[in-house]
Amino acid sequence: MIFNTDKQTLTDLNILGKPGADSVYTVFNHTHTRGGALILENMFRYPLADKAAINNRSGKIRCFRLANIAFPFRSGLFDVIESYLAMQDDRTRLSADDDTLARKFNHLVAADSNYKAITDGIRSLIEMLHVLRDFVALISATSGIDHYREELEEMKDLLQTPGLEPVLEEQAGGKLPYAKVVQYDQLLRFRLRNEFSRLLSFIYHLDVYITVARVADERKFVFPLAADAGTHYVLLEGVYHPMVKKAVANSIHITPENNVIFLTGANMAGKSTFMKSLGIAMFLAHMGFPVPAGKMEFAVREGIYTTINLPDDLSSGSSHFYTEVLRIKAIARELARNKNLFLIFDELFRGTNVKDAYEGTVAVTAAFAERRNCIFVISTHITEAGEALKAQCSNIHFLFLPTRMEHNKPVYTYQLAEGITTDRHGMLIINNEGILDIISKKVKNKEA
């Protein structure tokens, strides 16, 4: 089953971000190898939509967190190995008959680059095999590695590949005579190239598991439990945004009986941040990764779509409102395919007048509520829409983020509460900033 999302969602949740900028990806991007970095990025680009696969990956990462095992290889080792194994031009193949004085002289005078690359590659592979053999022995004696058992057994089998015995007996870092270089090169670079590619894949995945496990330990993230898609629920305790300093945690339980969350609150009360926290947690959970929360259980979804920071489509000349309409239309088409989706909408129809926004919010939210197999999180400033929906739909859960007043200034708790709020502090904030006074002062000064 394929997990569906789109560029808008990845941007809204800042999953991959721009090069050089912070993102959810950069929270985890601390691998030791380039191969591991590529696998990590691939996991972010292609989340999982299968319960067994999600729980299996999560279990592997969790076992390395519990074992507290460091990545055992030198990082620079693999650049040499990759370059060596990539030398598949048959003209670089060594010959046992070429161990002549002329070749030795050429090696001394011209620093035969191919021969050096071959010997460096062989020595690096020997070092890798030694370290891997020790690691396999160590992890085999460690408890709680059931989820990693299959990979472990396959690595054991690969280490016992016929012909590798003399290579494994070589001393790591030792010099090799020309005859052995020819023998091992033929074996490692040509005969067993596929086997070594498989071993490298295991090591790069190991790099990712250990790296993510370390992030989970340092940040106190938890491992979610994936449930059958048909249960249509999400249980989150203490979820927070991983990139907000001193983020306030919230808890929420979504079920088929309240699969539509209707969120209200004043400007700056934290609605967008809370919805992004939910989206990020759900995205990471479908990767089988740990999440910033105290506990998480979730029914597997077939995709996540968000509409939070929807840009104007200036190239087509569309208004912001029409861009919103097209976005909802695209998501409606996904819903029409009867997919189990997780959907977030921040302020439906903010690009139009209050009357149309009210009517559109009520109509679209009521239509969403008929889709009991999906989960919706919808925020709005139009609290009257919530009152109308109370009378129409039984499966909407009304939540708000409150504001309390201290010395005529709004203070935000960022803690979810039950119900609908009518908090509106836009003019209060404008007055507190003295904007009208500044404008009036400039007008008076001009008249004077």
Description:
The structure is a single chain. With 448 residues, the protein is α/β, with parallel strands linked by helices. It has two domains: 31-219, MutS, DNA mismatch repair protein, Chain A, domain 3, CATH 1.10.1420; 225-444, Rossmann fold (3-Layer(aba) Sandwich), CATH 3.40.50. 50% of the residues lie in helices and 13% in strands. It is built from 17 helices and twelve strands. The chain has helices at 7-12, 24-28, 34-45, 51-67, 77-85, 101-110, 113-140, 149-159, 165-169, 178-191, 193-219, 271-287, 320-336, 354-369, 383-392, 426-432, 435-447; strands spanning 225-227, 234-239, 250-254, 260-265, 295-299, 303-307, 341-346, 375-380, 396-401, 403-406, 409-412, 417-418. The strands form three sheets. The chain has a six-stranded mixed beta sheet, with helices on both faces. Strand 10 (403-406) and strand 11 form a beta hairpin. Helix 5 crosses helix 7 (113-140), helix 7 (113-140) packs across helix 8 (149-159) and helix 7 crosses helix 10 (178-191). It is elongated, with a radius of gyration of 29 Å.
SSE blueprint:
Blueprint: H1 7-12, H2 24-28, H3 34-45, H4 51-67, H5 77-85, H6 101-110, H7 113-140, H8 149-159, H9 165-169, H10 178-191, H11 193-219, E1 225-227, E2 234-239, E3 250-254, E4 260-265, H12 271-287, E5 295-299, E6 303-307, H13 320-336, E7 341-346, H14 354-369, E8 375-380, H15 383-392, E9 396-401, E10 403-406, E11 409-412, E12 417-418, H16 426-432, H17 435-447
Parallel strand pairs: 1-5, 4-8, 4-9, 6-7, 7-8
Antiparallel strand pairs: 2-3, 2-5, 9-12, 10-11
Helix pairs in contact: 3-11, 4-11, 5-7, 7-8, 7-10, 14-15
